[in-house]
Amino acid sequence: EVQLLESGGGLVQPGGSLRLSCAASGFSFSSYAMSWVRQAPGKGLEWVSGISGSGGSTYYADSVKGRFTISRDNSKNTLYLQMNSLRAEDTAVYYCAKRDDSSGSRGGKLDYWGQGTLVTVSS
Amino acid sequence: DIVMTQSPDSLAVSLGERATINCKSSQSVLYSSNNKNYLGWYQQKPGQPPKLLIYWASTRESGVPDRFSGSGSGTDFTLTISSLQAEDVAVYYCQQYYSTPHSFGQGTKLEIK
User: Fold this and answer.
1) Measured between alpha carbons, how far is A100 from A78 in angstroms, rounded to an integer?
2) pLDDT tens, B51-106?
3) What is the pLDDT of residue B61?
4) In terms of DSSP bridges, do strands B39-44 and B36-37 run parallel, antiparallel, or are they unpaired?
């Protein structure tokens, strides 16, 4: 059974940093690209970032480019999102999701999602 | 970047009736090399993560009831629920995965009339 478990969310001040983790199990982690998707309170879904199975290719939304860094440790079956220079508008539930392919900007559907972790940016 | 626009923003349908949600992309998401539309539909119920319903615009995910169907090609797509059930109350999103950023539509809230 595929499981994705996010952690690392919490309350952080504007300008601060936070690192989210997503522990994956039930599939061959290194064979699949992964994505982060966020949802601000009461709002819709926003794709944030993606990474290939090898970790060699990464992709970002313009809203986070230069501030967020996606990475993965395939030996630990874990996906990360390093978030720096956080702003109030980054407040959201952050979901990690598995893609059904290994790489590329032209990618696959998001077939499994975690339960999400809440990030609140406020003073 | 590809912009995804859904219509309507909200929809109220009687139990047993048909529900139709539309999704339009600002550029074609049809890849000519494999003739596939890089378009998915997701269902999100309150307090839950999204769930994949449809991929490649018209392929139903395993375990999804056959009352859900997807259609369309290029820039115009439709999600249809043929006979609305109470458990279908949710917000529905389309997403293109043709090119990054893999943008979502704004969502359509489906309620019972």
Assistant:
1) 17
2) 999 999 999 999 999 999 999 999 999 999 999 999 999 999 999 999 999 999 99
3) 97
4) unpaired
- The one-letter code for the residue type at B1 is D
- Give me the residue label for tokens 């690209």: A33
Distance from CA of B6 to the nearest CA of A (A): 12
SS3 A87: coil
Q: Is the CB of B97 less than 8 angstroms away from the CB of A109?
A: yes
Of the candidates A71, A32, A64, which has an alpha carbon nearest to the alpha carbon of residue A46? A64
Give one DSSP letter per residue of B14-55, joined into a string.
Answer: -TTS-EEEEEEESS--EETTTTEE-EEEEEE-TTS--EEEEE
Local confidence band at A103 (pLDDT 50, 70, 90 cut-offs): confident
A29 by DSSP, 3-state: which? Answer: helix
The residues in A 62-121 lying below 8 A from B, measured between CB atoms, are: 62, 95, 99-100, 105-111, 113-116
Nearest to B7 by CA among B26, B21, B17: B21
